Amino acid sequence: MTLVVKVGGAAGNALDPVLDDLATRQDFVLVHGGSDEVDRLGTALGRAPEYYTSPSGVVSRKSDPAHLEVVVLALAGKIQTALVAGFAARGVRAVGLSGVDGGLLRARRKEGARAVVDGKVLRVTDDWSGTIESADPTLLRTLLGAHLVPVVGPPAVTASGEVVNVDADRAAAAIAVALAAPELLLLTNVSGLRRDPTDPATVIPSVDRQAIEEVLPLAAGRMRKKVLAAKEALQGGVGRVVIASSQGPAPVARALEGAGTVFS
Questions:
Q1: In the chain, where the domains are located
Q2: What pairs with residue 129 in β-bridges?
């Protein structure tokens, strides 16, 4: 059965160990983020990144039309090409896809997003970010059947054909659900969900599905979206989700063995 692996794009992630490990495997989909490259490219183009925090504590990128253009350039362009080329160097044939291709990721635009600014809750205007509603596995299954590795990243598309930015962790969860994947690995720049975000020794080794709401307050910053992605994947029938480090040798194998935080 198909394994879905998502590798983060924030600073501190290690892509080469992930590609090395995946190159020895078959029947998997790689989903990627790219926040660090999006920030770098946006700054270079004079479009400095903007983030906002929702009343529930979720940190999101503000995606006005100018920033959405940067997202497409960085993710569907530079990062995806580098990952596909990295697989080629390891003898693996891969195909880069955005969620727009073949209607792979269907989303709705966030019309009523709210941000907490100086203690006040304000409406986020001119934002072209979206919430994923579903993933269509048709194109992925076609590629997997031809022994090609799908490499997938944002953005997504709405029912009316609008392009919207979406969170890559939650995209990975939707893809894992659509493919009936037994496991979803969310590889990132830390070793798992921590009780104290500053202390690596406080990684929580396992979380029962029923206890996710209890640990959610411990998930700060982008980690919150990973925990939400784990929740959505389990609700959709994925058997196990692991948040683990992308660093070091054999990160995929280690995550499958239970290194990190296992949600089940």
A1: 3-263
A2: 165
Which pLDDT tens digit goes with each residue over 88-115?
999 999 999 999 999 999 999 987 677 7
**Token pair in block for residue 73:** 């350039």
Q: Check: CATH 3.40.1160.10 for 3-263?
A: yes
The predicted model scores a pTM of 0.93
